[in-house]
Amino acid sequence: MIGIALPGPADFEAWRAEARRLLAAEVPPERVAWHLRGESAGLFADEAAPAPSPRRDGITVPRAFPELAEVAIRHRDPERFALLYRILWRIAGGEAGLMQVAVDPDVLRAHAMAKAVRRDAHKMHAFVRFRELAGEDGPRFVAWFEPEHHILEAEAGFFIRRFAGMRWSILTPEASAHWDGEELRIGPGGRRADAPAEDAKEDLWRAYFASIFNPARLKPAAMRAEMPVRYWRNLPEARDIPRLMAEAPRRVAEMVARGATPPAPRRQRVLAADVEAPMPADLFTQDPTAALAALRAEVLADRGPLAEHATQAVFGEGPIGAALLFVGEQPGDEEDIAGRPFVGPAGRMFNRALEEAGIPRAEAYVTNAVKHFKFKPTGRRRLHQSPDAGDIAHYRPFLRREIEIVGPRLVVSLGATALRALTGKPLAITKVRGEVVKSEDGQPVFPTVHPSYLLRLPDPESKAREYARFLGDLKSAWREVQ
Length: 482
Known about the structure:
Strand 3 and strand 4 form a beta hairpin. By secondary structure, this protein is α/β, with parallel strands linked by helices. The strands form four sheets. The protein has a five-stranded mixed beta sheet with strand order 3-4-5-6-7, covered by helices on one side. The protein has 17 helices and 14 strands. Helices cover 43% and strands 13% of the residues.
């Protein structure tokens, strides 16, 4: 058994160097005992790695592997180093498409690790609270945080970008990060007592949180899922949560009894002069079926910039309460004629992929970011044109209300237009594909490509490869909601 000592718990570069050396020497995973420097490698881990073999020289791996490994290695699981080396060994041994096999136990486990690390990083961004310490050289801001995984060094850049002009320290039980305005230093771990318990801004945090706490929309389970109780002891606003929750029923009853506050007369006159159409009917009904029907009628009656030339608007279809809601770009030629989404060539490929991924088509809701077909007439054909930012902005209110009424657990964006419509910014699919990001409204969004992309690929080999990858994305999205 060969013992490999790594300098840090999340040192990807050190792991990669050792993994390359072992791979070049053709050392199989079962002969390697990974450990951290200063820890025991085990009773029998005393062999030296053999010399590299020329047969292993110049091996390449798909880009998806290092991208996944760099995140998964921050997980706290002590088997993470061995797992990643085993995947690397298998890829180098001939399983070139291993990263596309979403159901493979090793790949599945590595993705689960990466997902847990990203979730922990999201919590760190949200729940680090700096307290001010006065010093002779000016104020310093100190925060205490207890991450589940080894994420401090990787996430320090987020706080540098956000608080570049502050001098700050983030203390964790394992390590600490210190920023002096110019240089980041990683030091040893600390204790909660090393961070100040409170400062003069505590009351501001509490007042802000109380002002945005809406008792009529209280969902304790959802709140605890997004803001786990384990973080409460470090959040100044958390001490008020039990009281605000207890007071919520009384405050809601008072709101109902008080009724709506009438607008000021002057403001009312301005609104009456400006508003030409009635408010959307779906905003005034509590019945989701009726609300969706009202929204559909409004979309069909829309005379926006694309409606003049299109045959008709194409609304979404599927059950209310669907766990997955898929958002495509816009209707195509066949959808425009049929008045239904995803019935053309891309839709048929999409339906086939859903079936192979084990996702019941009847249990999913499908719609488009843009509700009318945008095209350029060319003789007998209508040539598809991509929606621009103005088109996306026009239909975004319809899409938002459609998603809110359906109430999915996860929205899957198919292509760049859908992702931009949901997030409000032009994100690159290649950088966020397969990750869960947030929409402008805080809705979880799972980005992947549009099926039409697969149809445009030039050769059978790339079509098969990318279709398998798309199938893996669908399976991952389905696992997210199980």
